[in-house]
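User: Predict the full complex structure for these chains.
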Amino acid sequence: MTTDLAPAVEAPEALVARLAGVGRAAQRVLARMDAPAKAAALHAAAAALRAAESTILAANAQDMAAGEARGLTGAMLDRLRLDSARLAGIADAVDAVADLPDPVGQVIDRSVRPNGLELSRVRVPVGLIGIIYESRPNVTADAAALCVRSGNAVLLRGGSEAVHSNRAIHAALVQGLVSAGVPEAAVQLMPTQDRAAVGAMLTAAGLIDMIIPRGGKSLVARVQADARVPVLAHLDGICHTFIHAAADPAKARAIARNAKLRRTGICGAMETLLIDSTFPDAQAVVADLLDGGCELRGDARARALDPRINPASAEDWDTEYLDAILSVAVVDGLGAALAHIERHSSHHTDAIVTEDESVAEQFLAEVDSAIVMVNASTQFADGGEFGLGAEIGIATGRLHARGPVALEGLTTYKWQVRGTGQVRL
Amino acid sequence: MTTDLAPAVEAPEALVARLAGVGRAAQRVLARMDAPAKAAALHAAAAALRAAESTILAANAQDMAAGEARGLTGAMLDRLRLDSARLAGIADAVDAVADLPDPVGQVIDRSVRPNGLELSRVRVPVGLIGIIYESRPNVTADAAALCVRSGNAVLLRGGSEAVHSNRAIHAALVQGLVSAGVPEAAVQLMPTQDRAAVGAMLTAAGLIDMIIPRGGKSLVARVQADARVPVLAHLDGICHTFIHAAADPAKARAIARNAKLRRTGICGAMETLLIDSTFPDAQAVVADLLDGGCELRGDARARALDPRINPASAEDWDTEYLDAILSVAVVDGLGAALAHIERHSSHHTDAIVTEDESVAEQFLAEVDSAIVMVNASTQFADGGEFGLGAEIGIATGRLHARGPVALEGLTTYKWQVRGTGQVRL
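Assistant: Here is the predicted structure of the two-chain assembly.
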């Protein structure tokens, strides 16, 4: 028997304020570390992940057992599952982030004023970043690595179904980072799965500098609705491909098939195909898709192309299927395609297939989406494919960063002013 | 007698949705106008402002009379008042914005991927911007000009005390813009002073792309608390100047005096002076300020410098006086100065005076403020002084834009991808 009192329960706001305080202090230390030191720390973290394989896989087995008992779907269990190869992939990804160029300290621009003041804009870390995510335990390592590489402290809040996996990954990561001089609190994992703690993160304006939600629509919607902290978010990817009259037929067929069917569940997958009414090979394009196992839902003119095409409802034009389903419309020229995209696109990624350069340039100029493409598959909408090395997400908002967001999107800038005693008149 | 029914009252949300809809349509037209066309339109708007002088001054006289009747303070009436010279200044400012380089279409960076895809990041307008402001009617023209120059549509909501002035300025501006091909709805003034309409603007996520509040603390605080739309805001300017041991005494005296007393009411005015305990000319610095009519509030060591210095309370270190009052502390070296600034600065603008270059560089690197300065007056924290030509405000947040925000801060970017038929493996 003990006479100790039970520990006082810490209110979620107090918990977040405490974690943010130590996180920010750690960030100040991290911000002073140079690029090689941060890289070395991330390599140490990757090594620690590999060394902790048995611990991490055992923790993951606990989550898997609990998930099966709770009746998680096969897809959810697959997202949750780790094995030796997947864990190696997670560690490799941390090594890869370590080797990316460090954006911190880059001089964006510089000028000298007539009075002799020298002005520079220099990239600096955003500060303390909150990541709220769901079942994939790899996010714990990916997000932490991107934040540390860019000099940010991070407060991670993963899903309850992955809690043991996340704790094990976090413990290994931090052990590696600390061994290389990074303060322990630079990477923190929320110690509770209490949902109120998420609310406290979202409203911690002034304590957390940016929240990045990573997960499904309901998570992102909750974060956007409740946040007082700026949010860098990924919403729908209702991506269009417009096959223009002057499209090369072979390119049009290959691009349409790839944009829809290479992987149907990613945000860059095409969800609506627009075909110019004078494009001569429309039937071949839709036949390819139908033969490839895709359900097509079309307007009246599209349905005339192939009897296998089902009728589209009004909602289809605004639906992100993330599946082998595609809405198809026949349109009269670039103007009609632009109007359809303006009305229905989620402004994530939209593409045109055409050999007419002036039409291509008009499409690139007028479609107001994060990514606009000519003669390429929308499935290229990805930080890795863009050469960014890794991405924290694809931002569908308009401010701060847009499209694939990697290290640069985790920085801001400061103005440095070097004078020689100037005073203002 | 009329049998007409009274017009149905439009709910604030419906009003904002309607204005945002026509504003966005107008923005699409504006986005297609090239830089010379937008410049010509702004010059036409400036000319229209000059031509409407008598109408605008008559409207302003109405506001002034109402303001006097309502008992507005002298300072408020002065902010509200227009005369021939002030109106000419407003028109000149519109001309000046017209002549600024257009950021739209600038290529931020470009790369070619191994598969031949060409990637460019190109600056584009943010879209539809909401400006919520208080009594200065010049904001109506300034903000509209900056938005139009950068290809944005704008929804303006000014203060009720300036309602007639704002309407007259808006009418003249739009007449000029329309004469040069800009759609009328590119610059809209909220037709009601109903406060619920402000709330509807703040929550119009997806309709308005960014809100910029311009006004006092209570306005900005309300906007930040209630907004669901991203906000680019200016909070406190608790600016520090640290006089290091190796400061040049003449520079230190001139900078301290200028930073505090040139204009005490601007956000870049110094509010706290930190003096190294080994700086030999501390007495002269504080004497200059006291002789210049400034009240000094000091810690114990500062008060030992001059008997005229009053004691500082704990709150003084966190106060933006915007007046001829200054808090003064004596600190032991750079580390203590950095710690004080980290704790008390609002991270707007902080400066060091020193001839020691390595200390200067450490200060520039470690102080995490929007603007960090060496050997210069904090009063230079201004878009015009930074060569930006004009500013929509000084952002104290960390995302999107930081410090003085001018045209570039009113843009975002899109990724343009030019392919030759690439599909993703």
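Chain A touches chain B through 68 residues (CB under 8 Å).
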